[in-house]
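Continuing from the previous page of notes. For each protein in this section, the sequence appears first, followed by its structure tokens. Read the first protein now.
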Amino acid sequence: MATIGYSAALEQFHPNELLHYCQLAEQHGFRGVLAADHFQPWVPQQGQSAFVYAWMGTLGATTNHTFGPGVTCPSFRYHPSVIAHAAATLAAMFPGRFWLGLGSGEALNEHVVGGVWPEPLERMEMLIESIEIIQRLFSGKPVRYRGEYFKMEKVRLYTLPDTPPPIYIGATGPQTVRYTGQKCDGLITPAAGPEKLRGILDNLAQGARDAGRDPGQLRRLLQVHVSWARTQEDALQNALTEWPNGGMSFPKQDIRSPEDFAAMAKLVRPENFQGRVLISTDLDEHRAHLQSFIDLGFDEVHVHNVGRNQEEFIKVFGEEVIPKLT
């Protein structure tokens, strides 16, 4: 069976509170954590945004499952060498458990360093250079880099794991997904309709084949947003209040502030969550929803319940949903 993981929303919860939820999730059958890397929450109501790399050190020391950031942009707030350094340390401390999720970034988190926010193609080119730097540093050999976007003096990493952590790319677009299949170890993508997801997985496999790689060796991770509560009214209100960004179908990479998202959230209606956040009290419906992604071929499905009712969600899903998945 696929791994059912817990999606840790650092945008919503104090890091100590969220650490407790991750520990509880492990006790109730969740077998991994996908941790949000945000500088700011999506909307002010969410209220938090702890530094994920500090938090993951404690997560690794107090749990036994796999974990990683979903996802880090190694191109603006961080130089890629800094992310290579952080990732190598976590992988050395927690062998076989840490994976590195990377993506091309969103202005909400990356514009804090100022400057012009590039177009998508340029951000993709920056991500490719960043991955090259990180992979070379993981080799343990001295590396000097001179690219179009990044420069690095001749350096090497001294603290290294026995095996480099796998690099998973957060992507949906065909070009980035095919690149992932060619150069990286796996894919992180958000839940969507079956046809769209089949297309994404096909592009991943094609990229691997183009590079002479076995698609079956790539890891496929999915993040699923749901809103479960005891009543339908509560489940809907949780989505509207706590996760209105889940009802926004337009691209969000260029929006710069939680206040801007909050203004847009006023336009979100219940029907806007259709196909994006499953809002339901029916545990069988949630089970079928998760099973559909496993049947498509995803190796890990990380579930984010958007409400504040995390303890109840974890216990109920651990007892009534996860054991019934195949």
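Done with the first. The second protein uses the same format. Note its length before scrolling.
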Amino acid sequence: MDAILRNHAEALIREQITDTIMQDAPKNSVVMQLGRRLPNMTSNQTRVPVLSMLPMAYWVNGDTGYKQTSQQAWENVYLDAGELSVIVPIPEAVVNDGAFDIMGEVTPRVNEAIGQMVDKAVIFGLNRPTNWQSDIVTLARQAGNNVSGGITYDSLLSTDGLFGKVEAAGYTVNGVAAAMTARSAMRGIKDDAGRPIFVTDMQGATRYALDGAPMYFSENGAFDTSIAQMVAGNWNQLVYAIRQDIQTKILTEAVIQDPSSKQIVYNLAQQDMIALRVTFRMGWALPNPATRLNPDRSNVPFAYIEAGSPVTDYAATFTVQDNGSSPVKGATVNVNGAIKKTNESGKAVFNLRNGTYPYTIKASGYRTMNGEITISSSTKEETVKFPAKEE
């Protein structure tokens, strides 16, 4: 039986949708506009070496004093590709009868949906891939970079305000992300001299600036005001990469099932339908290298103003011991990107929302320990014992 196969009609199949999505998706995402884009990923994981320990310098006493030694260390931070995918079914009769290019109208909405899901996952952790590190709000919460009190002059620009938290980590704020509703909250705020702090900058990258930092108001519905009202930080420290194999495909003979019930929803060939399938893969990370103002990497270059009713989190207490059950002071506890050192009692406390978090614990002379901790609407105690010291 004769048929027009793909190789017969290849010259008529347009491929420009792939380029359009690859170029336009970042325009619809605050994260991808402000973050630093790395070269495209060539596999599902990209490794970024990060400075984790700084060398020290010492004064030498006298002409014959001994010079001391120091060290510098690096560790790997990984960008793991998470996949976004969508299938848009359309009856062929609708395509044929349409007065406009329906596929051309669908593509911008797909771009918008990609940007929305990226922002939700990276900023708030909503529906994030399980192999991604914790979101910006969670990392900032562990560093104590959460500000209460709503959007006021003090919560924004005081010593312990939104900008002050980021500056305490050794970074300047180069961008602010907020919901559209934040604009009305800011219009009436004035400094001590009676000048509005929310100003229009006609020559800047965006029309609005706060203390010189451009402001971006999410128009794609991604900003979740039940978690935060505003997020500020040094976005150059956030890196992301797009996996090369972004794919679009026109399906004509597929069967589409409901993911939950597995029931057939559409049989494209039998129902004279086509479907646009888009697959988008990217990874991101906040490497957070050691700096002189943040040598143990326990702080992060982001802060946020809490929602009117702060999100409930629970204390996760790690107790690190040696094989003799004695506390290990100064061990580095890394809970999915959030880093703290254990105290004299060998304890480090994190404040986590419900979920499962991988962790890594390191201490000089001991083998690295890995595990997972699950928070389920209650506090959690996690005791980790190192084996015998390495010889």
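What the second structure shows: Residues 12-16 have pLDDT under 50 and may be disordered. The helical segments are 16-24, 30-34, 92-97, 102-124, 136-142, 153-157, 162-168, 182-186. We return to this in next week's lecture.
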